[in-house]
Structures are given as C-alpha cells and as structure tokens.
Amino acid sequence: MYRIGEEEIQAVRRVIESRRLFKINDGGQECMHFEEELKAKFNTKYALLMTSGKAAIMSGLIGMGVGPGDEVIVPAYTYIATAIAVTAVGAVPVIAEVDESLTLCPKDFERKISSHTKAVIPVHIMGFPSDMTKIVEIAKKHNVMVLEDACQSDGGSFMGKRLGTIGDAGSYSFNYFKVITSGEGGALVTDNRELYERALIYHDSSAIAYFGNQLEGITEPQFCGVEFRSNEITGAILREQLKRLDGILFDLRKNKKYLMDKLSDRYNFIRSNDIEGDCGTTLPFFFDTIDDAIAFQNFAGEKGYGTTRPIDTGKHVYSNWTPIMEKRGAFNPKFDPFKFEENQGLQTDYHPDMCKKTLDLLARTVYISIDPDWNEAALEKISADL
C-alpha cells in the first residue's frame, strides 16, 4: 500500500452513515460510480468491480467461452492465481517462457500454440509491460483471445494505452500489495459486449436477477456461476484510491528514473518493453551470473536495503505451483480438469526444468522496491550507497 488517508476514512464514514453497505442501493451507489470512473479513466466500454484479481481473470475466461478441452497459455513467471484461474474454469494452463523483460516471451507463446489454444494471459508482472504489439499480432494470427493480467500494474501503459485495455479483456487487483488498494478487490474491463455480459452473469449469478436492474439490456441467457460481488465500502475506498493513481505512478516513475540514471554506469537493468509505461514499482538489476546477483543482494543487504531475487518469490515461479505441477485441479477428482476426458492429450507435461530460460533470468535478477515518497536526499543516499 502506497498512499491512503483522510479521504478514504471519510468515504468509509459516508457509506456507514448511509447504512447502505450493499452494492445495490438507492443511495451512494459507490460500486457503480467506481466502475463508471474506472471506465472513464482507462477509456474502456465496460468494467466490473469484484472481489479479487483472480475473480476477474476467471470471469474474463468465462466471458471468452474458455472451458474443458481448451488450453490457455500463461507465463512461467506470474503468481499462481493466474494458472489456478485457468483450471477453475475447466481448462488447462500451458506454461511458456518469459524473455529478458521478465514478461511473456512472444516467440515461446507462438511456439506453444496448438489447435486447442483458446486464450493467452500476458502478465504485466511487477508493473513491467508485456510486449503487447507482438502478443496481440500473434494472437490475431492464430485466432487466440488475449486476457491481460494487469493485477500488478494498475494504471500502467504500453505505447500510451493503459495495460489491461489492449487485449480482449483485462484484469486488475486492488489487494494490499497493489498500486491502489482496498485491502482486497479486483476488476475486469473490456470493450466486448458479449464477453462483458457473460462475465457479469458469472461473477454474481445468484444476485444479479434479484437485486436492482442489473440485467437490463442483457441478452445472454442466465447460467449458474459464482459470487464475486463487491460491497459499498470497497467501492468507496477505491473511488478515492483511483483519484490518487496517477500521482502515485508519477512519483514511482520519477524515483525509478532517478535511480536508473544515477546507477546506469555501474549496473545493468532488465530490458523494458516500454519504460515510460512501466509502473515504476520495482528497480530490476540484471547480472551476468547468478553469483554476481547473490553478491549484490548481500552487498545491498549489508547497506540496509531490502532486496529480492524473483527466483526466491515462491508461488510466483511456475516450479513452485504445487497443485498445477502435480495436476491436482480440484479436491473432488470429478471436478479436476486434469482428469477431464476433453483435456487428455493437451499440453500438461509439466516438470521443474521445463522453462530453463525463465529460471536463469529470475536467478540473475535482483529487485529493489521503489517508494513514491522518497525525496531527493533519500534517492541521493541510495544511489551513493549502491
């Protein structure tokens, strides 16, 4: 969490004093207003606020018609939720390498496409934009849908367009560790009406037909889904956080650029697909060898700076996705997509060293997190210390 304060406190107070905490009401309608404000800021036709980024990915996949018999390509470096969301809708994830930007490698994405590939999920990990020009080009060529996982890059951009709005749909997360936060939360955006209607029905199938006029103008038939409905306190907080978004990003990017400029004669950094659109949350040092990376990590630690090698971040690395690697897609085997007849013969030959390039790149990278509130004196000290 970067910035939160009196405005959010007053927003929560407003909701509590109204006594209208449920999403559908005749009062403040905070969730509805947040969706409208998100659409306006990101220039997208439709937006759905829900409980998490994973919920948004699942709803997007359902909207795309993904299910048993389908493969969805995901990068080897992303939080496990990306892959689990695929199994949750009955499909199977196909794991592809990342490149030197630590985002989905377009070449390996294309290599992994089969006749069963229905969608791809490029992940803008750590605020790093994926190469959406190449990914969208490849996807269109092979009739594959694109669902952007922008959960770690709220508000970032690629070539001037907000991350999450470039493919067929995009997902965001607003949990405690993201650029803007309501503790938990997520959103799905799209310009595709059919996809939106299906996602709407799926994300709250037990309530949309009962509360308010949520089905007004909806032509997709109702079907059984889940309950990812948000609430007015979350909506109110996010309305204030959305106002802070561009200021947070401006300061993150400014501080990251300052350090990169100061340190570029001493260190290399990972390649960026769009450094101007990068969220600026993370300064990624890149080394020739694993030993060099570890030595820098120890050196920075001795100076009092917290660092992370992405290879050590547990469930963000495919080889640590235990339920995926061991093909346990559900507790009840009859619900396990890895056991579905439709999914037999698909690309699920997972093994720990299947993406060696990814493992090597992650092991040779060291992160330092950027604070948007660092002043020039703090930045100067960091650049002098390192």
Radius of gyration using CA atoms only: 21 Å
Estimate what percentage of residues fall within beta strands. 5-15%
Report low-confidence residues grouped into runs of 5 or more.
Answer: none
Q: What share of the residues lie within helices?
A: 25-40%
Summarize the structure.
With 386 residues, this protein is an alpha/beta fold. It is built from twelve helices and twelve strands. The protein has a domain at 6-241: Aspartate Aminotransferase, domain 2 (3-Layer(aba) Sandwich).
Structure overview:
- This protein has about 375 residues and is an alpha/beta fold.
- The chain has a domain at about 5-240: 3-Layer(aba) Sandwich (Aspartate Aminotransferase, domain 2).
- Helix content is about 35%, strand content about 15%.
- It has twelve helices and twelve strands.
- Strand 6 (about 155-160) and strand 7 (about 160) form a beta hairpin.
Which terms would index this structure?
single chain; 386 residues; alpha/beta; Aspartate Aminotransferase, domain 2; 7-stranded mixed beta sheet; 3-stranded antiparallel beta sheet
Write the topology of this structure:
Layout: H1 6-18, H2 30-42, E1 46-50, H3 53-63, E2 71-75, H4 80-88, E3 92-96, H5 106-112, E4 117-120, H6 132-141, E5 145-149, E6 157-158, E7 161-162, E8 169-173, E9 186-190, H7 193-203, H8 232-263, E10 268-269, E11 282-286, H9 290-302, H10 322-325, H11 356-363, E12 365-369, H12 376-385
Parallel strand pairs: 2-3, 2-4, 4-5, 5-8
Antiparallel strand pairs: 1-9, 6-7, 8-9, 10-11, 11-12
Helix pairs in contact: 1-8, 2-8, 3-4, 3-7, 8-12
